[in-house]
Amino acid sequence: MNLFRVAGVAAAVLGMSALAVSTEPMFIGYLDSDMAKVSHVDLAKYTHINIAFGIPDADGSITLPADIPLATTVKAIQDKKVKALLSVGGWTGSKDFSDIVKDTAKSKKFIASMVDVVKTAGLDGIDIDWEYPGKVGNKCNVVDAANDSDNYLVFLGKLKDAFTANFGAGKKLITMAVAVTPFMANDKPMTDVSAFAEHVDFANIMLYDINGVWNDVTGPNAPLDSPADKGGISFKSGIDAWIDAKWPANQLTAGVAFYGRTMVAKGDMSKDPKNQYQPQTKVVTKGDEDDAPWEDKCAGTTSLSGVWKWNKLRKQHVLTAPDTAGAGWTRYWDDVSQTPWLFNTANSNFISYDDPKSLEIKAAYAAQKGLAGMMVWSMKMDSDNELLDAIHTWPGKTTCDNPPCDDTQLIDSSSSEPSTDDSTPTDTSPADDDDDDDGNDGNDDELPDQEPLGDGTCSENGKFTCVDSGNSSEFHVCNFNSKVSMKCAPGTKCYTLGPSIVCAVTDPQT
């Protein structure tokens, strides 16, 4: 029997706003290694998996990933009823994009190469990860600030035409990974990117790597919100920027990182625990046990990354539980960025990362903005699906992996009450139960105004109610005294059953 839970932190973020939510969000994962390294991941919890990366060569051909056998990987993904795409580009693979899309012969070959690999590997589509049109990403990337974005738009139109001609209209996907700000033209973000959206199925916004060792102060890798005096770039601002630039919200997914970044503070950050923006040395220190000097041939440098994957934070006992720091570390929670951070007084290491709590908050916000779902970099970094399960708390999502449900879906009102979580520093000692944090950043007035559902109000928080028992799949949940509309899985209807409700094919009482 499948239990449906409205996550407490998700409800807190939604606050008093009524929300009509999608029942089937997308969950896109990037696979940047062979399948053996994701054996601990439930692939079926993703809807799309992007195999990373095919590298565009200067002449428009594509070099496939050497360590991922494409055909067998595609089959393994599709056997889980998940769509498999090849992602082309990436941080070090975007060097020649600018030259390719501006050249007729090269772009023609590039498109032909994509069509060919989709055919030969049986892919469901192509994901393009150009980092970044009109803007310097990796130092080796060719950049044409005035023309990259215009050339990219023309190229995408030709790619879509080629896919339609070879596979049929809408039969194969074209998706893209995009920066936290819209495409650049003459060093400014474009204010209207709607034409791009007409050529692709959806775009995945990379809403992370906001702060790092490159800054003068420490700061969150992926803040939900960011103060204006700290740059103002955040999960919220990125989503708003793309929607404001006329990209349809339902063709966007919100990207999250399953890793954190280490910075070395100049002082003892524990003396100012409410402030995670403190001076740093800008020295790159070792991250998790996998971190080792890597060569950036483009920049001609060799350096550590300082990256801590979530599964290593757990395995190496930096976190003994998702919300509990291990020996030597202290966990803090930032109410503005809505993210946790860790500090070690012995070595002054600061780690910013996302955990289940912060990801539930982000999923709720993305749903509230009308996005299509969530994107993950990268799948292999999870631990026992802890982070993947957190984004699956997406409000209104059915609990069936492959709907319609083949079992009765119990809607358990008792599990939906908002939870509390200690927002004060945590270490190996017991948490302070006097400090409650409901996950709300105090900015409910920033959420879009929405019309209430029905009479708009309700008095019993956490109470589920069928709209028309036995005749409709729709039900309401009372969320902070405001009705939120949800639906049962396709093929089922909502039935009142005592104090609870169930979603079932037939009346469970007969």
Explain this structure to me?
This protein is α/β, with parallel strands linked by helices and 510 residues long. Helices cover 19% and strands 24% of the residues. It contains 10 helices and 27 strands. The protein has helices at 8-14, 70-78, 97-102, 104-121, 148-167, 194-197, 235-244, 310-315, 356-368, 386-391; strands at residues 2-4, 26-31, 48-56, 62-63, 83-89, 125-129, 173-178, 184-185, 188-189, 202-205, 252-257, 259-264, 294-296, 301-303, 307-309, 319-321, 324-325, 330-334, 339-344, 349-352, 373-377, 409-411, 464-466, 474-479, 482-487, 493-497, 500-504. The strands form 7 sheets. The chain has an 8-stranded parallel barrel with strand order 2-3-5-6-7-10-11-21, surrounded by 4 helices. Strand 19 (339-344) and strand 20 (349-352) form a beta hairpin. Helix 1 (8-14) packs across helix 9 (356-368) and helix 4 crosses helix 5 (148-167). The chain is globular. It starts with a strand and ends in a 6-residue tail after the last strand. Mean pLDDT is 85; it is low at 1-23 and 400-454.
